[in-house]
Design brief:
By secondary structure, the protein is of the alpha+beta class. Helix content is 40%, strand content 15%. Strand 1 and strand 2 form a beta hairpin.
Length: 65
Amino acid sequence: MKKLAVSPRGVRLVYLADEGQRLRYGVLRRAHFERLPLSRALDERLRSSACELYRGCADPANVAA
């Protein structure tokens, strides 16, 4: 996870799924990624985590006074 933001409007997760080749980008100015799109399992795990975080923060019992 690179970044996590939780607000009353929702949760935003930024996840590093892949990195482009720096040399190729430096020379050609084109990002190229080797991996295929996210697997369904990883996508579901990230979504589930976001929902759990939001529900946990929305619960008044978890909010400090």
